[in-house]
Amino acid sequence: MENASEVPVLEVTDLAISYKTRKRDVPAVRGVNFTVRHGETVGVVGESGCGKSTIAFGILDFLGANGRVVGGSIKFMGKEMVGTPKEELRKIRGNNISMVYQDPMQALNPSLTLGSQLSEVLTAHTDMTRDEARDRCITMLERVYMPDAANVMNRYPHMISGGQQQRVIIAMALLNNPSLLIMDEPTTALDVTVEAAVLELIEDLKKDFNTGIIFITHNLGVVAKVSDRLCVMYGGEMVERGPIEEMFANPAHPYTRGLLCCVPRLGDSLSNNRLWSIRGRVPHPSERAKDSCIFAPRCDWLEKGMGLSDKSLVAKCRIEHPRLKDISDDHKSRCFLGRETLKTPWNDFVRGQKRKLVHVPEDDDELVTMDKLLGVDKLRVWYKDRNPSLKAILGMEKKKYVKAVDDISLKVIKGSTVGVVGESGCGKSTLVKGIIGLEKPTSGNCDLMGLDITQPVKQRDLSLIRELQMVFQNPDSTLNPSYCIGKQIGRPIRKFGTAPRGKIREEVERLLRAVKLASYYYDRYPRQLSGGEKQRVGIARALASRPSMVICDEPVSALDVSVQAAVLNLLNEIKEEMGTTMIFIAHDLSVVRFISDFIAVMYLGQIVEFGPVDSIYPPPYHPYTEALLSSVPIPDPRQKRQSIVLAGDVPSAMDKPAGCYFHTRCPRRRELPDNGNICTQQAPEFQKLKNGHKILCHIPADRLTELALERGDKRMTLATG
User: Fold this and answer.
1) Exposure winner among 154, 217, 546, 611, fewest CB in 10 A?
2) Within a domain: 384
3) Are 418 and 586 in contact (CB under 8 A)?
């Protein structure tokens, strides 16, 4: 008899899942095979619509009324799950299989305390009393590094941060010591610092509980850090699987190679101006080919040959559906080209070499005379406390303000891109809202081309509004579903008179071509477009007034890596061809590095570091910037490094710490005399380095460099082109 520890936690064989529609059954997943063992993490990657989450819901039997497993086998601990009665499945799900969802607020009940929701998991599936369940819940919250766990039990979901909500969900999933933990995009909505803490936590829990984990994500850096094996999904099929290091070193399927090439990396040369992007989009389940390679319409190997010696293999893709083939031990690929692809290094042809950084002189006097487009001087955006105390209402206590943007000065040079990075709540979006006029500044000055823009957008002259446009994070919230794309892009053209009335359609089609969309998109509606196409429409609409400056607020954070690459390439092309000046907000430092000339790092309403991109990423850097850089997941499992996990959460913007705002979380304070008492008492001043690089910190720049190198943080001393 097979030893229980040798029985796989999960064994999926030839899994096929379909959804019933009015016309016919639509296959969502077909022919999927993989195994999860004890203490092993299997990563599942692919673009949206590839079937990743469908597999997870199929394992849990959460496919809805019209979804069902139509073929194959799902064995959990050797027991067949397909066909098992619902009541028995419910017991297995509660006790032995748990799931962590992408959005913790969708999994938490806003009307119940966290303690009652956690305790219910134990009281519903075990014989524990409420007191015993509460004690175990507190212990588990402490195990996931939740500060003040006992008091957190009495709070409601909205009273804790997003990172803490995700920790509650992970604690809830582990309460019954499950054998299988399914994590569906658990870090997508988190900041890089919180993401790093959650990933470290997952690694610790895997070792302690010997749990098998399925980790679903589209972030290749994350999957490289946590996974032992990798499965790549495309169009409902598993197109490649194997050990994580083998998959990253020798990807054998063109789709896997495409995904890896789409990712900007911190070590890339700064001369690179282009990322590889996969043509087209994932086909709808009802449109997927059955008698040919499903990836063929988007495959550059099929289109260009890529130096392959056997051209007959390329022709075979169009007439026959490929099966998984052995590439090496335990490494399989669903491609006729098989080992042939390994003859061409996967990253030899994926980067452009045309980008020119904005020249930054070493002489500060020359830096001052550079052509400024936007100037921000001591800008503040404060909000009154919406729930003041009775004493404040009666005038017995000083009114409190949320200091979202607190005394920021910034200069944007014409033709450059300034990247703004930082955690959620640091004031990035509020800063640009104050600049564009969606929020009224409390004090300070802001000018565009020498003209004052501190007044709200409603009070601005039409010519000023025309010169400053914005691309928002979520295009769905800014596109009107009732109007076709052409009408929505044409509206600012009519409003600002950038083209004669009789040539508006011609101008719209020109803008569509500029953002790589065909002219027939004019008559389409937002619901008929993919997420990446909607974001391109948002960019086209922002360019319709021919502005001097475009502000991009997290424009790629919610996109798949392939779509993200295409949008970043597009923004670079627009900048080069039209000379557009941009402010680009993101929390991904590798993305910001790829597109920016200057970087501003924000923390709690302040800029703590600013400088040219080639000065920001090598040491020295502010301790906060160092933590952000250490937390960026590297899409290479061979590069192991320890993230700097910041203690605690970002302090309240209404009650900021005295002295240096970052001192409550700073891992470098002890490097100063008296354990950094000066940080708690005195606000630091900027240390001005060469090329306009400045750091807001008490620790001398030379010591900051030494500390970074002592950590072994040498990766950014690479050539900057």
Assistant:
1) 154
2) yes
3) no
Residue with structure tokens 């092993």?
40
d(CA 583, CA 373) in angstroms, rounded, equals: 12
In a domain, 25, yes or no: no
Q: 681 and 604, same structural domain?
A: yes
Structure tokens at 181: 């933990």
Residue 20's Cα: distance from chain center in Å?
Answer: 33
Q: Does residue 284 lie in a domain region?
A: yes
Q: How far apart are CA 190 and CA 162, in angstroms?
A: 7
Cβ–Cβ under 8 Å, residues 616 and 596 = no
Tell me, yes or no, whether 581 and 676 share the same domain: yes
Residue with tokens 């409190």: 400
* Domain CATH code at residue 698: 3.40.50.300
pTM: 0.85
Where a domain ends, among 343, 374, 405? 343
Quick one: 697 and 575 in the same domain? yes
Residue type for position 110: P
Q: Is residue 26 part of a domain?
A: no
Q: What residues make up the domain containing 150?
A: 104-175
- The rounded distance, in Å, linking the Cα atoms of 132 and 138 is 10
- For the chain (721 residues), the mean pLDDT of every run of 10, in chain order, is 69 94 87 93 91 91 90 93 87 84 83 94 88 93 83 89 82 88 82 80 81 90 91 94 92 90 83 80 82 86 58 73 88 84 63 59 58 92 76 69 90 93 88 92 92 90 90 86 94 92 92 88 89 87 92 84 86 85 90 93 95 91 92 83 75 88 91 87 92 93 89 51 37
Last residue of a domain, one of 343, 377, 402: 343
Which residue intervals of 497-622 are DSSP H helices? Answer: 504-514, 531-543, 561-578, 589-595, 613-616
Residue 587 shares a structural domain with residue 711: yes
Length of the chain: 721
Distance CA 168, CA 590 (A): 29
The counts of H helices and E strands in the chain are 26, 24
Buried b (16+ CB within 10 A) or exposed e, 233-256: bbbbbbbbbbbbebbbebbbbbbb
Cα angle vertex 48, ends 575, 39, to 5°?
120
- The predicted structure's pLDDT at residue 65: 86
Q: Are residues 581 and 691 in the same domain?
A: yes
Tell me, yes or no, whether 641 and 690 share the same domain: yes
What total number of domains does the chain contain?
A: 3
